[in-house]
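User: Second chain of the day. Same drill as before.
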Amino acid sequence: MKVLVPGGAGFIGSNFVRLTLRTRPDVELTVVDKLTYAGNLASLDDIAGRITFVQGDIAEPGVIDPLVADADLVVNFAAESHNDNALRVPGPFVATNLVGTFQLLESVKRHGVRLHHISTDEVYGDLPVNSAERFTAETPYNPSSPYAATKAGADMLVRAWVRSFGVAATITNCANNYGPFQHVEKLIPRTITNLLSGGRAKLYGDGDNVRDWIHVDDHNRAIWAVIDQGSTGETYLIGAGDEMTNRAVVGLILELMGHDPDDFDLVPDRAGHDRRYAIDPSKLEAATDWRPELTDFRAGLASTIDWYKANEAWWHPQKAATEAGYARA
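Assistant: Same format as last time:
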């Protein structure tokens, strides 16, 4: 099987490539990535000889079409994904998340190639903090941010191309991921690298926003489960049930890294900051044999901390520019 992975130099995409190489030796992988600040070729350095890499923009049909034509399956991770950047400069999110998805859809339609599209739980907006309610595939879309709106639009494009043109596609909307190779702009790696750099942790608002966490390897195993066992045209939600406040996550990182529990600063909240996400994965579990395996969040977080400690050469070049961006904001 020839698999094309747009966005395969990013966090989740590069981990998908690694998981696939470990578990599916019969798969030939081609990664196409624009290599914006969030796409890091160093994430693929040690496996470069086992994949084909193409630097390019999925929104450019001259780039993406010949790659799709040579593939049996496209697994699309390509996205602009950072909410703070979307609030400052939303244009790139429209270009990649909407126009890029459109160009991919046109190519898979033209060449009869299967598509799996990776989305986010942020398309559903937020849930009450003190409730048992969870997102399902039937939850109405209600995006709060420019990022979430462009991802919601991309999902709708995929559904329209399935219904109107018979494109063979599936969609997954996943909870918050954590693990190795995540850019230092995100909560968990930013907190870890702040502490490793001698700084303090930062929390938006009151820190009581709730997120549903899943290890990136569990996410990527679920993607393969949907590809193998899911039904064309369907949407599946991926979650492991690890709901925690941002304050609790930061507190656990502080504890695991030997810092005082109050070694953090509250900073002004982000505009449109969703209060709670929670995933109901029962549709996925009914349709496939997937179940989350890395469910000990404390152990997973400790392993992630160890990875960042051991890989300063990977994250250090990103750190100064990321913190400068936060300071400007």
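DSSP finds eleven helices and twelve strands in the chain.

User: Great, on to the next one.
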